[in-house]
Design goal:
With 512 residues, the protein is mainly α. Among the domains are: 11-91, no CATH class; 95-116 and 284-362, no CATH class. It is 72% helix and 1% strand. It is built from 23 helices and two strands. The protein has helices spanning 13-40, 46-64, 69-82, 88-91, 98-115, 118-127, 136-151, 156-175, 188-205, 214-227, 233-259, 269-280, 285-311, 316-324, 327-338, 354-357, 362-380, 383-395, 400-415, 420-437, 443-452, 464-470, 477-509; strands at 342-344, 349-350. A two-stranded antiparallel sheet has the order 1-2. Strand 1 (342-344) and strand 2 (349-350) form a beta hairpin. Helix 10 (214-227) packs antiparallel against helix 21 (443-452). The longest helix has 33 residues, at 477-509. It is globular and about 70 Å long. 51% of the residues are buried.
Length: 512
């Protein structure tokens, strides 16, 4: 049994008005951008010029979100066929990229975790750990770490949405008690910090694994397709986990100093968590089956990379595993287990049925396919190369470290005003082209750009995670901006340091 989700008060009209004007401007600016590139980019070959015009309109529509982002991706690829940039079979081929099926399988696993309440069971288990108690600092740490760990495996937005009512309920439990004068207490600074920690930690945690957030798979897909380098699940985690640890530590240190009264006790919080855990009841057969399927996926996602480090990437066993069990295949097999493991065999009921499975975020799958398709065409037509040479002469970056810094900053800044997935789709192929034109190995700068695309913390529109907690009415916009810009800077620094220092080790493991 789950408690009812608390009502979410409206965030106000300011965010809605901003979004409305952004969409109006985008709808008007997209055809202008298309026409401007079509008429002015006369130095490009015809296919590149036509694709450049299409991409200009697509970027405007993605940034403004004037149309649904997946529809924009579809229309952009279709326009490339209509205008003769590429035949339909070539243009739409990336929609069948193996990483598309990694998305699908992972999303189905995440749906099962949500459907059977494993996310809440795990969250309350962490909050109920001995040592968390009723100290505000410990509760904040446990709450944020829980969000970060869950978002390593399921959608950041779903994680925030799931953890949000838990955080509000924790605060209501605290505020329902009385202070010494007999009046209700309102810990406004702590409330803002607790709810912001949910959104920020969910965005941070997604960096840890390839399946943690869509930009990771988008970046990995571009790197594999355009450089031939296949970054395994294990090797991505070798970079992602240190970035998560640094960014999470920076966030928690910020909130501990700014909003936590370490001498205070949160009376009643432990009792609330204990009551919620008791209400969850015993483990169900569906929960056990979901853990089995999820454990299978994680084991075979990590095992090939771990064995490659122990035995060497050229060992026959490692080659066989990499060939027979790529991440997308593992995800589909694990998802398939959900439809095979029974919950009631007599009634032919299984862990997940199709009605639940189709509730996944299909738009992200389509957006990924469209983004990879347009990026691939940019390289095939020579548009990416031309853009790379232009940026090289304009910016003058000639070193790998300099490009890592530039890529991280640009992706982070862009993600503040548009979705993380769109940011990755726009920035990563440009960074790869830029690196090639400068004679730089593009893999590490592309990884940095991919991670930077997930570092949008300043505004409610930066990410759905921010929008969810901002809608509580408990977070002043100035507080989100103040904490968010600090975390943006800390995240940028963390990505640059980790990719610069540990990246060469990953490159060596890849045989580069």
């Amino acid at each position: 049994m789950q408690t009812a989700e608390p009502e979410i008060p409206p965030a106000g009209d300011a965010g809605d008005a901003f979004d409305l004007w952004r969409r109006r401007i985008g709808l008007a600016a997209a055809p202008v951008a298309f026409a401007a590139v079509w008429l002015l980019a006369t130095g490009l070959d015809t296919p590149a010029r036509r694709l450049g015009a299409i991409l200009a309109a697509v970027v405007v529509l993605w940034v403004s979100e004037a149309l649904p982002m997946a529809i924009t991706a579809f229309v952009g690829v279709a326009a490339a066929v209509v205008l003769g940039v590429a035949p339909a079979q070539t243009a739409f081929a990336p929609f069948a990229d193996p990483l598309v099926f990694l998305f699908v399988g992972t999303f189905i696993l995440a749906r099962a975790i949500f459907f059977h309440g494993l996310d809440r069971r795990f969250a309350f288990a962490i909050l109920g750990l001995r040592g968390v108690g009723e100290r505000p600092g410990r509760v904040l740490v446990a709450y944020a770490v829980t969000a970060a760990v869950i978002s390593m495996w399921i959608s950041n937005t779903a994680t925030t949405a799931m953890m949000f009512p838990i955080g509000v309920a924790l605060l209501r439990s605290l505020e329902s008690l009385s202070d010494g004068a007999g009046s209700p207490r309102r810990a406004t600074g702590f409330a803002a910090a607790l709810l912001l920690s949910n959104a920020f930690a969910a965005s941070i945690g997604g960096l840890a694994t390839p399946v943690g957030t869509p930009p990771n798979l988008i970046g990995i897909g571009f790197i594999r397709k355009e450089t031939g380098v296949d970054i395994s699940f294990f090797l991505w985690m070798a970079l992602g986990l240190p970035v998560v640890a640094l960014a999470l530590a920076a966030m928690l240190a910020r909130f501990q100093l700014a909003a936590v009264d370490r001498g205070r006790r949160l009376d009643g919080v432990a009792a609330f968590v204990a009551a919620e855990r008791a209400a969850l009841g015993a483990w169900t057969r569906g929960q056990v089956n979901t853990v089995i399927a999820f454990g299978f996926a994680v084991a075979f996602w990590v095992l090939p990379g771990a064995l490659a480090l122990l035995l060497g990437a050229d060992h026959p066993l490692c080659r066989q595993l990499a060939s027979a069990l790529p991440e997308g295949v593992v995800a589909l097999l694990a998802a398939g287990l959900l439809f095979v493991l029974p919950t009631d065999l007599k009634r032919m009921q299984f862990t997940l049925d199709w009605r639940e499975a189709v509730q996944i975020d299909w738009w992200i799958v389509f957006l990924y396919g469209g983004g990879i398709a347009l990026g691939t065409l940019a390289f095939k037509t020579g548009l990416a190369e031309s853009l790379g040479y232009g940026l090289t002469s304009l910016l003058g970056v000639q070193s790998e470290v300099g490009l890592i810094v530039l890529a991280t900053i640009i992706a982070t800044v862009l993600s503040e005003t548009t979705s993380n997935t769109a940011s990755a789709n726009m920035v990563v192929p440009v960074v790869i082209a830029f690196a090639r034109s400068s004679g730089i190995d593009p893999v590490l700068p592309a990884i940095a750009a991919t991670m930077g695309a997930s570092l949008g913390f300043m505004l409610p529109v930066s990410t759905p995670c921010n929008a969810i907690v901002y809608a509580s009415g408990r977070i002043p916009l100035t507080a989100m901006m103040r904490h968010g810009i600090w975390l943006d800077l800390a995240g940028i620094a963390g990505v640059i340091v980790v990719v610069t220092l540990l990246g060469p080790l990953v490159r060596a493991a890849l045989g580069g």
